[in-house]
Amino acid sequence: MLKLAYVFLALALPLSATAQLNSGYRFQAIATDVAITNSLWNMVGGKKQEIYVTKMIRSLDYAYDAGPTITFYGSHVDQDGNPIPEAIVNVPEGAARLLLLFAKLAKPDEDGLTYRVFAMKDDVKDFSFGSFRFMNTSQKTVAIDLAGERFVLKRGATQTLKVEPPELGDLPIRIAAPNEAGNWLSNYTNGWSHRSNRRTLVFIIDGKNDSVKPLRYRQTEPIQ
């Protein structure tokens, strides 16, 4: 499971983007730390495709060839001039639309890769507009209360909720996690805006002083 041991510069902000819901095998991406400004690329139909990924919002739609993995390359080449993989993504079984989370490594891993990438299904049928999807990438088990909907997420677990927008105001959100002594403590309390034409992806990440905190991305349904 991807460990997000990085400092996020924008936490729990109402970050939004209009969905680019093109058909076929597509992905959007988010960078956890350093933006990817056309420095990575993959091959699609035999052609090179550079990607542009920021920390603030989802990227535009990019295509990928159907298969068990997606390989991304950069500027590194071997002694024969062949590109060396910078990241290899395992595609979830049965997925067509993906969201990729890129985390730059402090140094290349044992396989020479310079990024860890977590891939999740992003199909609207599985994650519809009007829903929240929580993904616990922290090292703790967390308890979440979103407008009275209460659930517990273990490390690496995901929960998707369809939530009716409030008639007035915001949805109350509370997140708790155990401290080193095993006592549950409130880590986050706030109110989140919500609409029926919006879906919100929330990563729970490790914070400072043995705490956790949410990183929130909102996406608005395109007008037909």
What does this protein structure show overall?
This protein has 224 residues and is an all-beta fold. Helix content is 0%, strand content 52%. It is built from no helices and 17 strands. The protein has strands at 15-18, 26-31, 36-44, 47-53, 62-63, 69-77, 83-90, 97-104, 115-121, 131-136, 142-146, 149-153, 158-162, 171-178, 184-192, 198-206, 212-220. A 5-stranded mixed β-sheet has the order 1-17-16-10-13, with no helix packed on it. Strand 6 and strand 7 (83-90) form a beta hairpin. The model is unreliable at 1-19 (pLDDT under 50).
Order of helices and strands: EEEEEEEEEEEEEEEEE
Shape: globular
Helix content: under 10%
Q: Low-confidence spans: pLDDT under 50, at least 5 residues? A: 1-19
Q: What is the radius of gyration?
A: 18 Å
